[in-house]
Specification:
The protein has about 170 residues and is α+β, with helices and mostly antiparallel strands. The protein is about 55% helix and about 30% strand.
């Protein structure tokens, strides 16, 4: 009788474990289906929206490329139907021996050679004075390249720079 009770107890334990495993498998299948649905949705969104510009990389490049005399007062980046467009406003101050023009030109050239930016245009340059320092206010417009185009343009810029070097 004790053996029969022990056998029944073991059978109940095995059945309980089997039910638990079956429930675990059902849950795992549901999770996998949800992950697959989310992946398909993300893929669909990527194809509809297209590749996006890397905003953090754009801001880091502006910070890295701007000479000390160039200061940004506003940076606006917007997703438009035709792509990601941006505008920067700022000022450049007379910095020792360098002219305002050369500092601003250096910055614009650096942006134009950066693979993250396209169609960089300088506009609305006006003389200004802050405290007792002379400078210029400016506005720059640009297109931010999508991530996949950035890699391609980076390779093109690297090749062009290598061709210019003696």
């Amino acid at each position: 009788n004790a053996e029969l009770t022990e056998t029944r107890h073991q059978a109940d334990t095995i059945a309980l474990h089997a039910a638990g495993r079956e429930q675990l498998q059902i849950t795992a299948d549901k999770l996998l289906a949800a992950i697959n649905d989310a992946s398909r949705l993300q893929s669909r969104m990527q194809s509809e929206i297209g590749p996006q510009a890397d905003y953090r990389a754009l801001l880091q490049e502006v910070s890295r490329l701007a000479p000390d005399s160039v200061r940004m007062t506003q940076i606006t980046i917007q997703n438009m139907p035709e792509g990601t467009e941006g505008r920067m406003t700022g000022y450049v101050m007379l910095d020792g021996d360098q002219s305002l023009h050369s500092n601003l030109e250096q910055f614009i050239d650096a942006l134009r050679n950066c693979p993250l930016f396209d169609r960089v245009t300088l506009g609305n340059v006006q003389a200004s004075q802050i405290a007792d320092r002379f400078g210029q206010n400016f506005q720059i417009t640009f297109a931010a390249l999508p991530v996949e185009n950035t890699v391609l343009r980076s390779a093109q810029v690297d090749n062009a720079q290598q061709e210019r070097e003696p």
